[in-house]
Design goal:
The complex is a heterodimer of chains A (291) and B (360). Chain A is an alpha/beta fold and 291 residues long. In chain A, the strands form 3 sheets. In chain A, strands 10-9-8-7-11-12-15 form a 7-stranded mixed sheet, with helices on both faces. Chain A has a 6-stranded antiparallel sheet with strand order 4-3-6-1-2-5. A two-stranded antiparallel sheet of chain A has the order 13-14. Chain A is globular. By secondary structure, chain B is of the alpha+beta class. Chain B folds into 2 domains: 208 residues, no CATH class; 109 residues, no CATH class. Helices cover 34% and strands 21% of the residues of chain B. An 8-stranded mixed sheet of chain B has the order 3-2-6-7-8-9-1-10, sandwiched between helices. In chain B, strands 5-4-12-11 form a 4-stranded antiparallel sheet, with no helix packed on it. In chain B, a hairpin with a 3-residue loop joins strand 8 and strand 9. In chain B, helix 7 crosses helix 13 and helix 8 packs across helix 10. Chain B starts with a strand and ends in a 6-residue tail after the last helix. Classes of the chains: A alpha/beta (291), B alpha+beta (360). Chains A and B meet through strand 4, helix 2, strand 6 and strand 13 of A and strand 4, strand 5, helix 2, helix 3 and strand 7 of B.
Amino acid sequence: MNCAVQTTSPPSAVTENIYLPKVAVLDRVSDDIPEVKTFYWHFEDAAEQAQFKRFRPGQFAQVSLFGIGEFPASLPPSPTEDETFFTIREVGSCTTALHELKPGEKFAVRGPYGNGFSMEDYYGKNLVFVAGGIGLIPLRSCIVYALKHRDKYQRIQIFYGSKTPNELMYLSNLREWQQSAGVECYLTVDRAADSWSGNVGVVGSLFKKPGVHVPVDNTIAFVCGPPIMFRFVIKDLLAMGFREGDIVSTLERYMKCGVGKCGHCCIGVAYVCVDGPVFTYAQIKKLGEDI
Amino acid sequence: MKARMLERADVLKIVDLLRQQGYEVFAPFSGRGRDTWFDLVTDENRERIQVHLPNPYYAPKRFVLPHIERLLKIQRSDGEIRIEPTYRERKRAIFGIRSCDLAGIWHLDRFYLGRDFRDVYYEKRRQNLFLMNLVCTDPERDIGEECFCPCADTGPAARDHFDLQLLDLGDEFMAVAGTPAGEALFSQPMFKPGTQAQVEKRHAILGEVRKRFKTTTSWFPATVRYVSQGTILEKTWEEIGNRCLECGGCTYVCPACTCFTVSDRQVGPDEIERVRIWDSCALSGFTRMAGGFNPRRAVHDRRNRRFFRKLAHYFIQRELSMACVGCGRCAAVCHGDVGMPSVVEMIRRATAANDKLEPV
């Protein structure tokens, strides 16, 4: 057995400590939508920053707050962008502590972890992004990445919906995508105020709008959003003729380690942290647990 | 592997030898009734070490994966944060570890060291650990009501993964070395070469001991197949779930359970420590996320999860051994009688009953 431990064996080459986070500095904070903020940060150590920047879209990191604990967070930036940031909803003790942090203050990060989206495998395909609410956070990375490598992909479509117009994430990005020639970006909200001139309805309603044509052949659909939205969008996509293996999503689970040891995120035969968080719908169906 | 012989009176000299070599030696002791435990050997308690006794419920897994272990020391001063890992690198030996628990540690080795990410805390404890296995041969004292290692194929005599193994032949003990560290002890004059007759006696004793196990119907292969294929009815999981009191006892005594939670605790005004603590999939908070969403709400979902993780073919192949070693502790501590042997039997019977044919 190659990994058998022998009492007499010489100490192996120094094993990296997988639980050791590195100190990071908060640069600035921007308000996105109610309860959600974006935190721009960098590692204290430049070498650490350079190494971290090799992450892939869809991967995540473990964020440590002094005295509170650690939580997993998606990486919304694309590796092609300069800045590193998290977009976090205030929902538990750790995220609340992060929301209270002031620019210049320190916390700690380790990662990146997980499989991420295999964006290179999708070269030559159409990309359809379907997001609901803060489900846009992990997909933002892929969208920015795909637009940076625009010539590698065929059509790129974005369907994004939120409850109300002021709960639309990444407004400046959305405007940019709406104006960009290389991408079709459709927005919708569940409930609108008078000032909203766009579509009203669930995300799925965008697929049937006049003038919208979703390519099905040679297409990868990225779906991310709240459980109820996820279920309906999957139904719509399957009805349109998408294959289960061509629909990809990213799962979230309670995690303590991020490296396949603590056991909390294990569903079916998969540890979400190392075998995921990105799975095809065909895989998700087999795992057999609620999204 | 070569067999050596050791006088009955010399057995504890192994403990002395290991202590002289700088090991902290842990050995089994017994109190009243079923109360047994592993404790640090000192000059004072050395004479009370027990060779044959019921296997302690608190498994020696804790010497590689303590139930609470500090991972990091984190200090804050003037806005700076200093994070420092803390390791324990003391040489330790376990005298009298049973074959089932040995299989448990081997299973943990695959899990903590054999995957993409190696766990450095586990590795440091494991590298410094000397394992002296004692084969359960006394049907009265060694073999409990719930023991079922022959079903899990881990005992009564471990075939591998020990540094040194002792088997009681009656008047004397047969010693076998599993690693160079164990073999090194054979240079001591108290170890004499074994004879063919003694090796045969060992075979005879083991053959006899196998017949003395009370729980022998935990037939895993069928259950592993049903679990892996997902052919077990939801109704069966519900029956198992209904009997689970959600105490988590099975996971805390299990020598092959690996799950832990991580917690930060304040130890000074500007100092905290990050510790990992055994966790249990039987508890409802195990999968509850911030915000309250819990993908695994029902108790039978959680039981399903535990047995799937232990018995699914995928994981057996991944870790090269089943996450059940047949020690019987879960069966002994479970108030609802849904320890491993019962569950294996319930699943097998329910699935068999399911395919009754109707006469036309």
